[in-house]
Amino acid sequence: MTHHINENCSGCMLCQRVCPVNAISGEKKQLHSIDANLCIDCGVCGRVCAFNAVQDAAGKSVEKVKRSEWLKPIWDYDSCVACNICVMACPTGVIALQFPNGDRRRDSLPYLQNAKNFIGCSFCADSCPTDAIMMQSVEWIAKGNNTLLED
Fold this sequence. Notes:
The structure is a single chain. This protein is α+β, with helices and mostly antiparallel strands. It has helices spanning 14-18, 44-48, 85-89, 123-127, 138-142; strands at residues 4-5, 24-25, 33-34, 54-55, 72-75, 95-98, 109-112, 133-136.
């Protein structure tokens, strides 16, 4: 079961613009719909909806969350085995690899390369076999608690 758009939809088209897999369709000022065959259940459509028009697979309304409050991935590089599964799991391609000291012969490490296109789906953390990724708030990161390397 995937997310669903209910009759509260105003047709603002924001959900359609942020969907990483183009699963949402509809015309401006008209009720939109989600193609269950394309939806990956990332939930970004609900986090951007100001009209409580998106319901999750259980039928619960997805609450709007300000983009600045979306949890972001933080890597524990001591636990990371550089398998790059998080890079492959990211539906928007915002996780990239970096090479310590620029040496491409050594193991690469993942990091959030493009925060602007980040959708907060947690697929990276959910797929990590060593639990090396934690989803944290911007406030937590701002306190210097991160190992996140920005580009």
